[in-house]
């Protein structure tokens, strides 16, 4: 990879009705990469789509804000400093709680993360 370090301010941004993901590292950015890394931001009172990743495990580390994270049939209350591991193929969703936006670091065990969505993003 020729450009190190990778700065969040230069990340590719993918926007959704609920917020955005800043992609900082994946196979599109660095061909041959075996990981995907990003920063997700979800607006206050919003949620992302219930979805799964058929080809990779996900780690989500909360930087700020609070959410109820649904993983399969379990609900987890999460805040800054919390981490959740989401196995390959398990559906999940973050529902933002409180009066501040939710920000988390997300990492996937594949450079080419795929998503199956069960509801509209």
Architecture (CATH level 2) name:
Sandwich
- CATH homologous superfamily title: Jelly Rolls
Q: Major sheet: size, sense and barrel closure?
A: 6 strands, antiparallel
According to CATH, the fold-level topology is Jelly Rolls
Mean pLDDT: 93
Element-level helix/strand string: EEEEEEEEEEE
CATH C-level class? Mainly Beta
Q: Distance between the terminal alpha carbons, to the nearest Å?
A: 31 Å
Number of strands: 11
Structural class: mainly beta
Oligomer: single chain
Q: From the alpha-carbon coordinates, what is the Rg to the nearest angstrom?
A: 14 Å
In short:
The protein is mostly beta strands and 121 residues long. The protein is 0% helix and 48% strand.
Please give a handful of descriptors for the protein shown.
globular; mainly beta; 121 residues; Jelly Rolls; single chain; 3-stranded antiparallel β-sheet
Task: Describe this entry's structure for a reader.
With 121 residues, this protein is mainly β. It has one domain: Sandwich (Jelly Rolls), CATH 2.60.120. 0% of the residues lie in helices and 48% in strands. β6 and β7 form a beta hairpin.
